[in-house]
Amino acid sequence: MSDIGYIQQDNEARFGDYIALLKPRVMSLVVFTAFVGLVVAPNPVHPFVGFVAILFIALGGGASGALNMWYDADIDRIMRRTRNRPIPAGRVSEREALGFGLALSGISCVMLALATNIFAGLFLAFTIFFYVVVYTMWLKRATPQNIVIGGAAGAFPPMIGWAVATGGISIESVAMFLLVFLWTPPHFWSLALFMKADYDEAKVPMLTSTHGRRVTRKNILAYALILAPLAVGIGFTSIGGPLYFATAIVMNALFIKGAIEIHGRSEVQAEADKYAVEKRFFYFSLIYLFAHFLALLAEAGLSYLGLGVW
Quaternary structure per UniProt (predicted)? Predict the structure, then answer.
């Protein structure tokens, strides 16, 4: 009897389970890129307003994560990578996750609009809609281009940050969007290369499942080659500079080198070393994106101090 009571207590939702619903690792990327978009914008924002804006953008990103987990609970129970999430593990019900996600969505969008401007609030609402409805409910289970088109949702945050400061869109904010947008497919496809069995079992049509690993490797290289000139070219915009340019040259050279290594590998080689090269590329891709946005942030700091060169 005591054992049963212990199990029931262990399955009760804790504060940490609701934090997990927000996908904090994904949220950290949302927060960072949105913050950079806000800081590099030409219009200064009061620090308190900026803090509040980032807080509500973070809540909006978390709301997207909770709604994604609510809808994907069935496949999360199947995939080894996700089966211990709060809903499939039985610690949070699907109904609770839905209510939690919808409440945070409404609060974040309305409060961002009130704290900054209506355009930014509407942009956040559109981003949540795109991630939950367009990507999660439609594209993810319908097409191997799911992560290509759906990746736009993860690329919107720097544009939202820019919109908080300016109330609109510009070439620079679109360039930051494209940087994340073109980075997303090779990042996730490298994950899919060594997690193929999970996607196969859950019947999620990732490129590795529908077209095979060979085609996926070719697409990773193709996207790396397309991404590089865009990433380097941002150095010549108003938000770029020599520090960013140097960072982009180094990081894209390494990114292309990694993509070439992945492209040249056979499945025999990959299985022999347990996809070590693919895993290394996946984790490096996180550093790649962080380095670009950190360099943009540094350029903004140098300009603020009157030390900008370009």
Answer: Interacts with CtaA.
Write the pLDDT tens digit of every residue in 131-187.
999 999 999 999 999 999 989 999 999 999 999 999 999 999 999 999 999 999 999
**Are 155 and 103 contained in the same domain?**
yes
CATH number at residue 56: 1.10.357.140
Residues 223, 276, single domain; the answer is yes
- What is the pTM for the complete model shown? 0.92
**Sign of CA pseudo-dihedral 245, 189, 155, 103:** negative
Mean per-residue pLDDT over the chain, rounded: 93
C-alpha distances (whole Å) from 278 to each of 15, 118, 158, 260 are 35, 42, 28, 11
pLDDT in tens, 26-41: 899 999 999 999 999 9
Nearest Cα to 275, choosing from 201, 208, 182? 208
- Kindly tell me the burial class for residue 292, based on how many C-beta atoms sit within 10 Å of its own C-beta (0-12, 13-18, 19 or more): buried
Q: In 3D, which of 227, 108, 113 has the Cα closest to residue 175? A: 227
Query: CB of 147 within 8 A of CB of 190?
Result: no
| Residue 134 burial by Cβ neighbours in a 10 Å radius (0-12, 13-18, 19+) | middle
If you count them, how many residues does the chain have? Answer: 310
Which structural domain range is residue 296 located in?
A: 171-310
